[in-house]
Amino acid sequence: MDIWRITKNKHAATAFTGEGARRFGGRWNGKGAPMVYCASTLSLAGLETFVHMESEDADNLLVAIRATLPATLKTERLTVDELPANWRDYPAPSILADLGDKWIRENRTAVLFVPSVVIPIEENVLLNPEHPEFSLIEIGQPMPFSFDLRMWK
User: Which value, to the nearest 10 degrees, does the dihedral of the CA atoms of residues 25, 31, 35, 41 take?
Assistant: First the structure.
């Protein structure tokens, strides 16, 4: 299965280290827990990136990076039914970071599928860069990515 990550070009070399999420935290992790946020499709990765941008970010040089999960890789999945009713709130309820931190801490799998807040019937893909099987994930080369300027209207 292919998954996608979009990041600024200047962060491409470290895009799969989990360092940004470790330093700043996110919806699915608290500060201190390394995690790599990806999406199940390139279009979802684009929307997930876009919702965090401002119009002045339109000139940012972005790259898309494909990663391939081997079919034999063990994964976990959280469904909407397993989440609290307010899971889509912004800012995110802390219980979500607690769930992600527990998954990282217990080191059960290298991959956790979670519903996308942007499109709940689609999935984001969280990676644990410290899991032994993380090295089985094939990370591709960055390719230029940009948004159609009409999206900024």
Answer: -10
Domain ranges of the chain: 2-152
Residue entry with tokens 């339109």: 58
- pLDDT per position in the chain (153 positions), as tens? 999 999 999 999 999 999 999 999 999 999 999 999 999 999 999 999 999 887 777 667 999 999 999 999 999 999 999 999 999 999 999 999 999 999 999 999 999 999 999 999 999 999 999 999 999 999 999 999 999 888 877
57, 60, 85, 94, 130 from 50: Cα distances, Å? 9, 11, 24, 23, 28
> Cα–Cα distance between 90 and 83 in angstroms, integer?
15
Write b or e for each residue in 24-47: b if 16 or more Cβ atoms lie within 10 A of its Cβ, otherwise e.
Answer: ebbbbbbeebbbbbbbbebebbbb
Could you tell me where the DSSP H helices lie in 14-149?
A: 19-24, 42-50, 94-106
Question: pTM for the complete prediction?
Answer: 0.96
**The token pair that represents 43 in the structure block:** 């279009």
